[in-house]
Amino acid sequence: PLGALAVLAGIVLVHESGHYLAARAFNISVEEFSIGFGPKILGFEKFGNEFNLRALPLGGYVRFPENFDILDYSENFEIEYSDDPQLLQNRPWQERAVVLSGGVIFNLLLAFGIYFGEIGPLGGSGLPRAVFDDGVIVAQSPRSGGPSDGALLKGDIITGINGGQKQVSDFISTIRDTPDGEIATTTTTSSKPVSTTKTVSIQPQRNDGSTQTIGVSLRPNLEKVERLKSNNPIVAFKLAFEYLLDIFTQTLLGTVSVLASFISPSGSAPGQKISGPIGLIQQGSSVVATKDWTAVWMFAAGLSVNLGVLNALPLPALDGGQLAFVIAEAISGKKVDQKFQEGLTSVAVLFLLWLSVSAAVGDVSGL
């Protein structure tokens, strides 16, 4: 696992460097730059800042000075805030927005650099990109007596449901959100390219009726896999950006879907759809063990995008949530009350801790 931990620590280092360098560029005071949490293993001081490596390299932080005396923080009297212009809290909203966005921006730049290195004229072998045709393919024969028995066959291509969804996620969402009854599928086969309409029954997948199914597995209609490679730097730049945008979009949609399942009464049990630290290290260790440097770089790029997306979410404990407060200030013309921010952040921290513990439980149960 040391190799995987090194990759993870490297990604965290890039993220925190985005915050730190942005703050330094604006001459904003910084107290500590840390990789990891928990007890300090080693550290040094430079530029008036502490640089530390801590025992648990599963994250990191850049610590800024508070704008009040923590020893005097009490609910019983009015807190006196400092007006020191070097404090992050006292800087113009534009500067705070750049500092808060720095980590996510650096994560995306790292991923882009890796993709460009593989696609462009720097010696990479190129990146595979799947090209999909419309519709989804029935991946297995319907079970006898099931809702699709007699209507669908293995290999059928469903190009529309009740009117015209095109993506796998659209088909699945439509099926799961449809009450008991029937749906009309527009279907073709390789031997019979003419579209026909077939009626398929819907039945509950869960005892409480919260999720519906048509009783077959569906997979994307893969047309081909092309390799992205160009010795033209401009073309490679464009291809790398498109590749990054596609990975970012998929990661964002997947993350939102997982979070929605956690807060939905009918969602899956926590920890069953996401990887926590243990699962992440397992995946990374498997990749590093192959000694395939292209695979290692791709793992690092994907991990960097994931970290960027997670931190961009508008939860108060994350960069995106803090940025949301700054944007609210820019729109309203006045700062969001600091006590209110701290209260929301505390709640968000508890939610993230619960999410992390649930994911870790899922990791352990999957060992």
Automatic annotation (TrEMBL):
Keywords for this protein: Hydrolase, Membrane, Metalloprotease, Protease, Transmembrane, Transmembrane helix, Zinc
Region Disordered, residue ranges: 182-214
InterPro entries: PDZ_sf, Pept_M50_Zn, Peptidase_M50
Transmembrane domains' residue ranges: 97-117
All residue ranges annotated as the Peptidase M50 domain in the record: 4-354
Bilayer topology: Multi-pass membrane protein
A single GO BP: proteolysis
GO MF assignments: metalloendopeptidase activity
Cofactor: Zn(2+)
Residue spans of biased composition, Polar residues class: 202-214
Source species, domain of life: Eukaryota
Location relative to the cell: Membrane
UniProt GO cellular component terms: membrane
Biased composition (Low complexity): 185-201
Entry similarity comment: Belongs to the peptidase M50A family.
Record protein name field: Peptidase M50
Native source species: Fragilariopsis cylindrus CCMP1102
